[in-house]
Write a structure and sequence with these properties.
Order of helices and strands: EEHHEEHHHHEEHEEEEEEEEH
Distance between the termini: 33 Å
Shape: elongated
Structural class: alpha+beta
Number of strands: 14
Length: 366
């Protein structure tokens, strides 16, 4: 954990450790989290797409309430692998775009920086059309003297004062032109980088995850899950799909089938644009089709068994955020052809309110 190979989460009496193989190997080699990304050979990139997790319930085992890490306390373990991942900025498919951004806006920005430095100090190979700005050189000399003679307690106030004085320095037309070019090129570079990173963040990703669940007082079962997330319509929407199959590890008393359940689900999020003074309004459409091919057994419970059959669940949802407040108002209509216990269709409307505590608490920070 100290080297970034593992992360620990605690929920009640359950401790979950998560990590990836590259981080674990680098940690054993005494490399930290940042250094573990220095190697980028094909094998390392492949292993970086794999991760694992293991959960322990400290209430189990021979010493309830004490974490021992024994096999009896394992409540689940899982393995995850990114089959297809376009959300890594280092992906080879984006290399040409990064090189183009650096060669176009990046080089122009570097040249502007060199010109600005030349206004203060002479350069080894100066541009004959650019000479140090006398007023800037004078300001820099006085600023250095003021900071050098200030006491440690006065440095902060002196630095603030000398930079306020920079506003009153009369710049030459050449200096103003170079600064304007720098502002233009810096803006173009930052905008290009932001657009590229946004497209990468909205890239497609398909992940496979295997989880072995050990409920303790119920039969152990395995879950095979494939999750895909895409950004159709050129990133103007977000589509998430999920296909899941669960199987019992072995037949036991009350378990007559190996298959536990099969589920498919999908969700499409479409931002509808800016509504005056409310922020972006999002339309959420969910179509979930779980199909159950077994009779659920509530081991040790007195509730009714679930009936076998297919269940189709759908939902239309509008989310209205109140701009800058961290408050959202969801409106939704949910419909299904049946429930887990009753073979009757159902339609339900919901209205609520949610709070983003981070946004709300930030309002109280000085």
């Amino acid at each position: 954990m100290e080297n970034g190979a593992l992360q620990r989460d605690v929920s009640g009496t359950t401790l979950t450790f998560r990590g990836n193989w590259v981080g674990l190997i680098k940690a054993l080699g005494d490399k930290g989290f940042i250094a573990s990304y220095d190697d980028d050979d094909p094998t390392t990139r492949f292993l970086r797409r794999a991760s694992f997790a293991i959960s322990f319930d400290s209430n189990r085992g021979s010493q309830p309430g004490t974490f021992t890490g024994s096999n009896q306390q394992i409540s689940s373990y899982s393995f995850r692998f990114d089959i297809y991942n376009k959300r890594d900025p280092r992906n080879s498919s984006d290399s040409n775009r990064w090189r183009s951004l650096i060669s176009d806006q990046g080089e122009a920005l570097t040249q502007n920086l060199a010109s600005i430095v030349g206004f203060f100090i002479p350069l080894p190979n100066p541009d004959p059309n650019l000479t140090p700005d006398a007023n800037l050189v004078t300001w820099l000399g006085s600023a250095q003297s003021a900071v050098a003679t200030a006491s440690p307690a006065q440095v902060d106030a002196v630095v603030r004062k000398v930079f306020e004085g920079l506003r009153n320095v009369q710049l030459s037309p050449t200096t103003r032109r170079v600064i304007a070019d720098f502002e233009k090129n810096a803006g173009a570079y930052l905008d290009g980088r932001s657009r590229l990173l946004e497209e990468v963040a909205n890239g497609a990703i398909v992940t496979f995850e295997y989880t072995n669940n050990r409920p303790g007082n119920q039969p152990n079962y395995s879950n095979f899950n494939v999750v895909g997330e895409f950004s159709p319509f050129r990133g103007k929407a977000d589509l998430t799909t999920n296909v899941s199959l669960s199987t019992f590890d072995r037949k036991s008393v009350g378990v007559t089938r190996v298959a536990r359940d099969f589920q498919m689900s999908g969700q499409l999020d479409v931002p509808l644009g800016d509504i005056a003074k409310t922020g972006p309004l999002c339309l959420h459409y969910v179509r979930e089709i779980p199909a159950f091919f077994f009779r659920h057994h509530d081991h040790g419970h007195n509730s009714h068994d679930r009936e076998k059959g297919n269940i189709g669940i759908g939902q239309f949802k509008f989310t209205i955020p109140v701009k800058g407040s961290g408050v959202k108002i969801p409106l939704s209509v949910t419909f299904s052809n049946r429930t887990e216990l009753i073979n009757e269709s159902k339609v339900r409307g919901n209205i609520g309110i949610t709070f983003d505590l981070d946004t709300i608490f930030s309002k109280f920070k000085p």
